[in-house]
């Protein structure tokens, strides 16, 4: 089965770590055959487009990333989430695959709570959650079954192979399940298969 799928990689990053993981995820999803929109929630320094609700409507899978802030997501990403009320009300965010990633300064500095905070919204959307789990040997190296999570160790540790490998595992898995979900998705409003 090689259904065409659209993947939106939506993220916020202030000092570049989350953006670096987002790029790895986007490249991997592209290599896996997906059409990809890599979208920061604020306009990128290179003038590229910022994320818009339409990117989620377009997507079959959404992979969303935020730095951890006091064990929670960054306010900038929350503002984007809060712009989705209209799309949510119309049922347009449902039945898509969702997955999350993050970066912290300290080990166990709130990675899992941040990933869960993102997933809370995904539940409200009626999303199909696809976490990486321990489904690949590389996941035993990065050790986070909830999503790719980097630790910058006080901004001394750039995104490394362990994190990149985890990002690749997650992106490949999301594309695979996005294809499967797309094949059975129904239009929420009509109840008919899309
Ligand atoms: C207001 C604020 C709160 C933060 N809270 C945490 C935290 O709870 N745990 C942690 O490990 N790092 C925390 N950090 C550090 C960021 O998570 C870290 O710098 C981030 O992973 C970098 O991501 P970025 O380079 O994509 O911006 C915080 C940073 C800021 C500015």
TrEMBL record:
Residues 7-194 form the Flavodoxin-like domain. It holds the Pfam family FMN_red. GO terms for molecular function: FMN binding; NAD(P)H dehydrogenase (quinone) activity. SUPFAM superfamilies: Flavoproteins. GO terms for cellular component: membrane. Gene3D superfamilies: 3.40.50.360. Transmembrane segments: none annotated. PANTHER family: FLAVODOXIN-RELATED PROTEIN WRBA-RELATED (PTHR30546), FLAVOPROTEIN-LIKE PROTEIN YCP4-RELATED (PTHR30546:SF23). This is NAD(P)H dehydrogenase. It comes from Streptomyces triticagri.
